[in-house]
Amino acid sequence: xxxxxxxxxxxxxxxxxxxxxxxxxxxxxxxxxxxxxxxxxxxxxxxxxxxxxxxxxxxxxxxxxxxxxxxxxxxxxxxxxxxxxxxxxxxxxxxxxxxxxxxxxxxxxxxxxxxxxxxxxxxxxxxxxxxxxxxxxxxxxxxxxxxxxxxxxxxxxxxxxxxxxxxxxxxxxxxxxxxxxxxxxxxxxxxxxxxxxxxxxxxxxxxxxxxxxxxxxxxxxxxxxxxxxxxxxxxxxxxxxxxxxxxxxxxxxxxxxxxxxxxxxxxxxxxxxxxxxxxxxxxxxxx
Length: 287
Description:
The chain has two domains: 2-21 and 123-286, no CATH class; 26-112, no CATH class. The N and C termini lie far apart (44 Å). By secondary structure, it is mainly alpha-helical. It has helices spanning 2-11, 16-23, 36-46, 53-60, 98-108, 113-119, 124-147, 152-155, 167-185, 196-219, 226-250, 256-286; strands spanning 29-32, 63-65, 77-81, 91-93. The longest helix has 31 residues, at 256-286.
């Protein structure tokens, strides 16, 4: 009951409207090509036939062709076809490997990830993958920081000593925040009412992996349970995000077998990440 009470208090600090605003920001994209066929290819890649006419119209208002009238003074993004003369640092669309430009854009324009994913399906998988890893890694780091409070400043977690008695509250809040991101990236309605089923399942799941983490930390002496505890935080968050991404993109979540397999893989990755964080702490302490 204490955890539920804290969760009720904590969720009031999460504002899905901020995520919605971030996802709906306008993004102006300039396409540059030497031939009309290249424009057609790039536009068809950004706006595949699978999207509805209404979504296509919404996305097309963000795209400008070279020489087009009424273009903005500044473009958020410029993408060049392979047949165009491009600056050395330009984003190049390669017909045989379009995924490369997606990764290059997100590497250098991280802030555009959410609106690009909402508008243009080719960006969704990579944006979701990065968001899932980012929030899962935050939870792994937070799990370590709450066990060893002096780690917090070294990990850059100024919020680690928060107002809530249970670290499970913060971990669960981050998972709910991830649910908002997953919905926004896949152009779904987001909010507590719109995603009540997803939010409810996240809160229910918090009790399960919280108990597992406590059991591990209690059975392994001398802090040896810190790595598994952080790995559980990473794996639990990863599976929440991956299952939601599957649901929003394809209409169904992981089966129990798939969830177990995904959890086991993520747990192993989480142990590596936690070990790396611990090593980072040791190196900074000795520096």
